[in-house]
UniProtKB/TrEMBL annotation:
Compartments (UniProt record): Cytoplasm
Full protein name: Holliday junction branch migration complex subunit RuvA
Pfam families membership: HHH_5 (PF14520), RuvA_C (PF07499), RuvA_N (PF01330)
Residue ranges, annotated region (Domain III): 141-194
SUPFAM superfamilies reported for this sequence: DNA helicase RuvA subunit, C-terminal domain, Nucleic acid-binding proteins, RuvA domain 2-like
Primary subcellular site in the record, as a coarse category: cytoplasm
InterPro entries, sorted: DNA_helicase_Holl-junc_RuvA_I, Hlx-hairpin-Hlx_DNA-bd_motif, NA-bd_OB-fold, RuvA, RuvA_2-like, RuvA_C, RuvA_C_sf
CDD domains per the UniProt record, alphabetical: UBA_RuvA_C
GO terms, molecular function: DNA helicase activity; hydrolase activity
Domain of life, per lineage: Bacteria
Gene3D superfamilies named among the record's database cross-references: 5' to 3' exonuclease, C-terminal subdomain, DNA helicase RuvA subunit, C-terminal domain, Nucleic acid-binding proteins
Organism field: Aeromicrobium panaciterrae
Family: Belongs to the RuvA family.
Coiled coil: none
Length: 194
């Protein structure tokens, strides 16, 4: 697959750009935000994702790898193809999209053309545990708790399992516990509950 392209910008339209890569003009579909950063004749590097269908091979370009990774992740939800995924990133930056999915913010997701309430609900259900964001941060919640929660998600546990383990070990902790000790205890709890 093609991970990125670099070269002078040969042309720009409303939905795509042509990058001259070693004498070959590669047409790359881009969001309006990415296109706005490109200038004809200037060198550009775009992170890319190639979508192969029976009748086409389309290259989608992004300003950075975070956008590309979100583009590829949201397509794993049923009913989300590359055009809807690109529309999601045109309306919402990756962090805001990640938060909307993680927090189940249907109002934000339905701002995207092509996503209705049922589609937004399906996206949240299918991707909530995979975006690395959980329910809204509780005011005054200790920072160590967020760190342990993120670590558990990074180790592959679901948000629900991480929350349950933290509830079990949080009562034993003081005001400023050692994060590594709390993480170890949470992992022991998860291993016992399996």
């Amino acid at each position: 697959m093609i991970a990125h392209v670099r070269g002078p910008v040969a042309a720009v339209t409303l939905t795509s750009a042509v990058i001259d890569v070693g004498g070959v003009g590669m047409q790359i579909m881009c969001s309006p935000g990415t296109i706005a950063q490109l200038r004809i004749g200037q060198e550009a590097q775009l992170s890319t994702s190639m979508v192969v269908r029976e009748d086409s091979m389309t290259l989608y370009g992004f300003a950075d790898t975070d956008e590309r990774d979100m583009f590829e992740l949201v397509q794993t939800a049923s009913g989300v193809g590359p055009k809807v995924a690109q529309a999601m990133l045109a309306v919402l930056d990756p962090d805001r999209l990640r938060r909307a999915i993680g927090q189940g913010d249907l109002a934000t997701l339905t701002m995207v053309p092509g996503i209705g309430r049922k589609g937004a609900e399906r996206i949240v259900v299918e991707l909530k545990d995979r975006v690395g964001v959980t329910s809204k941060v509780v005011a005054g919640q200790p920072q160590w708790r967020d760190q342990v929660h993120e670590a558990l998600l990074g180790l592959g546990w679901s948000a629900r399992d991480a929350d349950a383990a933290l509830e079990k070990v949080a009562a034993e902790q003081g005001d400023d516990p050692d994060v590594s000790v709390v993480l170890r205890e949470a992992l022991r709890t998860l291993a016992r509950d399996r």
